[in-house]
Amino acid sequence: MRYYLIVGEASGDLHASRLMAALKQEDPQAEFRFFGGDLMAAEGGTLVKHYKELAYMGFVPVLLHLRTIFANMRRCKADILAWRPDALILVDYPGFNLSIARYIHARSRIPVYYYISPKIWAWKEYRIKNIKRDVDELFSILPFEVDFFEGKHGYPVHYVGNPTVDEVAAFKASYQEDFTGFARRNGLSEKPVIALLAGSRKQEIKDNLPDMIRAASAFPDCQLVLAGAPGIAPDYYERYLGGADVKLVFNSTYPLLAHATAALVTSGTATLETALFRVPQAVCYHTPLGKLIAFLKRHLLKVEYISLVNLIAGREVVKELVADTMTVAQIRAELGRLLHDEAYRRSMLRGYDDMASRLGEPGAPLHAARQMVALLRTRSASARNMLEARSEHVGSTPTTRCGQMPDIQ
Fold it and tell me: Secondary structure of 313-350 in the HEC alphabet?
């Protein structure tokens, strides 16, 4: 069968590439065409447009590139209809993908599958109308989304597990380097490590890293190690290190977490990864105009927490220092508890265990692929049965009223 996939950023490229590998396992004749990245291209198929040509973050960059964005969207819509896949698979990236879903749903019978559902439970809940209208099957990677979509909105979803569980489990199974080897390879001492995960975007790094460093520098018995994000140049980090004794490492986030004693982490998937490595953490997310943002968070956001750890657990497992509560003094105090309060550490680790049990076992891409292929085969069988029934009714040559073969896509 033929699969058309669309992603809009690096994380989507990773998750989609794993899904493609699983689809090939379930459907050896699978063909792929996609808006994606290098990891997807390595799985085979045709790369129509690289996600780096799609990803514009923030109001001003989007405004400046509107012509390019609309041109890419037009090309994507036309390409899907021309290729006529057996399924369109959208991966996160809701601003672009929901527009594609609406167009394709209105103009074809191509089933629209959404893998890694839009996080409308936090923001823009009105998009549920678009999802109900334009998305045939939704595949969720967060367990609490089932209650949101099915319980609150009466829209059925498939919970397939979380791909981050797969990625961390695969790393742990293959990683054998001890702390001494890791320290030697990265020019570190033997002191306990405080990991700094300051985000993957420049604005996040600018807003969060300086206060993280100032707070963590109060613990001279530990060494600070900063995980460099893909696509961020080392000299950008240098602007915010301020001469502090911080070691910057790239392509080593998982090894870093495997050996860290505590971590300061911005919100996002990094909080989940840190928890799966069982590293006590504080979530730090500074924003300009902190008091205003705190007010908006209380009154506009639909969720109580911003970290995936707390959202999945359904309670506060890790401390969230956000907007007006993110100060150097509060980060320092929380980090002190993480490093020195054993009862506090044990309580957080028990919370991690609860969160992990809710996520379930590894296998998310394979679970999703199996369900997608099964749905498509059922759809194909139903179409064949319909044609056979028509054939028996009107004769040996199935026709529509205008004498043409019916569209069974």
Answer: HCCCCCEEEEHHHCCHHHHHHHHHHHHHCHHHHHHHHH
Encode pLDDT of 144-175 as tens digits.
Answer: 999 999 999 999 999 999 999 999 999 999 99
CB burial of residue 278 (10 Å; 0-12, 13-18, 19+): middle
Asked if 114 contacts 138 with a C-beta cutoff of 8 angstroms, the reply is yes
pLDDT digits (tens, 9 = 90+) for 262-294: 999 998 899 999 999 999 999 999 876 544 444
Asked whether the domain spanning 176-359 has the same topology as the one spanning 2-161+365-390, the reply is yes
- CATH superfamily, domain at 176-359: Glycogen Phosphorylase B; (3.40.50.2000)
Q: How far apart are CA 161 and CA 388, in angstroms?
A: 38
Q: Give the global pTM.
A: 0.86
CA distances from 120 to 117, 148, 299, 359 (A): 8, 9, 16, 19
Locate the domains of the chain by residue range.
2-161+365-390, 176-359
Contacts (Cβ under 8 Å, ≥6 apart) of 220: none
Among positive and negative, which fits the CA dihedral 64, 67, 73, 79? negative
2-161+365-390: CATH topology is Rossmann fold (3.40.50)
Q: Enter the tokens of residue 33.
A: 């065409």
